[in-house]
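Render Adenosine deaminase in 3D.
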Amino acid sequence: MDLNKIPKIELHCHLDGSVRPDTILDIANKDNIDIPTYNINELKKYITAPEECHSLDEYLATFDIANKVMQTKENIKRIAYELLEDVSKYNVKYIEMRFAPLFHMAKGLKFDEIVQSVLDGIKEAESKFDVRGNVILCCMRHMSADDAIFVIEEGKKFLGKGVVAVDLAGSENLNFPEKFKEAFDLAKSYEYNITIHAGETGIGENVFKSIEMLHAQRIGHGVFAKDCVKSYQMLKDMGVTLEMCPTSNVQTKAVNAYEEHPLKDFLDDDIRISVNTDNMTVSDIDLDREFKILNEINKLTEEDFKRIYLYSVHASFASDEVKEELRKYV
């Protein structure tokens, strides 16, 4: 089985976690941006999570440098374009890239300029590569509920124009759904699609709370649903798709090793999953290698890969027309 030739869908990929190292270095030199080192090999150590990463918070710290070079329209457009170019090499046919616009306002860019720059990069890449793209706007849990409402309010004008959903990401605690309920009630009223990072750390309860309280149609990671009967059953009963990111989960210590990842158990029990990179640069991974690891450790069959692909198409926030095109690849 040639894993490179298998068509793929990427539903959980952070733009600022997938910036090419040489692009960071090039922009830092061009724009005179202060970064810890201008040696490419040393730089990679700062923007890639260590193999022995101790927690999700340590993993998230690697994003800081990338966000420094994503403060102009030109740079943001370039980075969005390059991400589509990169994933096209791994036969990714559709990607939903996510990012937090509030991280890119430090040098004076307005919200609309930031989002439009990402959409412009996607549009240009789509004209050159065999891949389609859409955008998910991230709200951040360490920020206020008012900040989330701001993102949702400002982003609604882009619905139907490349923005397809809103997300809630960042370090995870037990009571975050309660904090953001008003914001995501608003998002639902505006007809955003909704995906929520939940169950990435050891709090399986957050999965069902995100579905019940925040209207999540998909769950980012969801690893610890395995330890919460209510969350597990809700995933099965409602057909909610988990955006699983095995390499990232090993790095953040959601699981101690690939062999302990519940992905295959979920799949075998008819829980819908997709397979994703999370962050191509931070996790130093691409979908070809992610699939190769799963094939070697979990012994996934060609039929398993087909199911994952079709689950991903179904769960995507693409238009019905695009979904029909994507199904034709299998």
